[in-house]
């Protein structure tokens, strides 16, 4: 406990206010999730036990928080650069096979180009565990996908879920305290009676439309990244998060 106090004391008043606001929003989020779990038949003591277990596991892993936070973003940036940077593409605009380490044409060089600051062993291990990397002839590696889709449990999933929740809370906080600046994107399209036979068509439609939107947003963001190398420039993390969902329809009230 004493080791964590100095970092708190260095927070500015604005950061402290924001932290308190995010904690209030987090409390509301946990309340909503617990409410729906209990309403769906989960015993309240089981919900409490799950929350306690989650906090205990989080305390054990707190030393790895920075890696967990950055891992998903790091592999996403790496894959994007691998599919976009001409120095890492062949004459048909396909990703080049790379060695893991080296000054050029390597994952190490690619990480530097993408601005990823993470141990190469951690990065490559994460890509392999999520089946985002395959070994080509001459012991070089190639990406299996152009986007980072989390397929298996692991630290990438922990970081992805944690960042997603924090980003949601950040948007909620901004939109309720942004004043005249106007809100960030926060939209939902939902029906509660979609026929089961339409689910596959919805999956395909939402995947196509979402991919087009995210790709366009990514190009916009990439073209406006800070290019300041000398004088310090204020920067923020900005992005969009798009996902589709299919859940059971709500139970109809009994007459």
Q: What is the fold's blueprint, element by element?
A:
Elements: H1 5-9, H2 13-39, H3 44-60, H4 65-84, H5 107-114, H6 120-129, E1 133-136, E2 140-143, H7 155-177, H8 199-222
Antiparallel strand pairs: 1-2
Helix pairs in contact: 2-7, 4-5, 4-7
Provide a quick synopsis of the model:
The protein has 255 residues and is mainly alpha-helical. The chain has helices at 5-9, 13-39, 44-60, 65-84, 107-114, 120-129, 155-177, 199-222; strands at 133-136, 140-143.
Structure write-up:
This protein is mainly alpha-helical and 255 residues long. Among the domains are: 1-60, no CATH class; 65-143. It has eight helices and two strands, in the order H-H-H-H-H-H-E-E-H-H. A two-stranded antiparallel ribbon has the order 1-2. The chain is globular and about 65 Å long.
Order of helices and strands: HHHHHHEEHH
Helicity, as a percent range = 40-55%
Question: Uncertain regions: pLDDT < 50 for 5+ in a row?
Answer: 1-9
Radius of gyration: 22 Å
Q: Main β-sheet: number of strands, strand sense, barrel status?
A: 2 strands, antiparallel
Beta strand count: 2
Number of helices in the DSSP assignment: 8
Which class best fits the helix and strand makeup? Answer: mainly alpha
Strand order of the largest sheet: 1-2
The dominant shape is globular
Strand content: under 5%
Distance between the termini: 55 Å
């Amino acid at each position: 406990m004493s080791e964590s106090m100095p970092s708190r004391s260095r927070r500015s008043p604005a950061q402290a206010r924001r932290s308190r606001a995010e904690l209030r929003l987090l409390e509301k989020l946990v309340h909503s999730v617990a409410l729906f779990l209990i309403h769906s038949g989960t015993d309240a003591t089981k919900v409490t036990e799950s929350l306690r277990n989650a906090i205990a596991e989080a305390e054990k892993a707190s030393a790895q928080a920075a890696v967990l936070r950055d891992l998903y973003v790091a592999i996403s940036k790496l894959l994007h650069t691998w599919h976009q940077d001409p120095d890492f593409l062949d004459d048909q605009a396909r990703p080049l096979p790379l060695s893991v380490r080296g000054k050029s044409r390597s994952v190490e060089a690619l990480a530097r180009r993408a601005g990823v600051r993470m141990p190469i062993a951690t990065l490559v291990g994460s890509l392999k565990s999520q089946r985002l990397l395959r070994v080509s002839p001459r012991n070089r590696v190639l990406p299996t996908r152009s986007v980072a889709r989390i397929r298996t449990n692991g630290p990438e999933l922990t970081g992805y879920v944690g960042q997603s929740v924090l980003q949601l809370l950040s948007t909620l906080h901004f939109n309720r305290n942004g004043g005249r600046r106007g809100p960030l994107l926060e939209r939902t399209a939902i029906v509660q009676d979609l026929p089961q036979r339409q689910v596959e068509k919805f999956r395909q439609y939402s995947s196509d439309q979402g991919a087009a939107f995210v790709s366009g947003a990514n190009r916009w963001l990439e073209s406006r990244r800070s290019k300041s190398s000398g004088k310090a420039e204020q920067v923020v993390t900005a992005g969009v998060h798009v996902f589709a969902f299919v859940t059971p329809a709500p139970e109809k009230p009994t007459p």
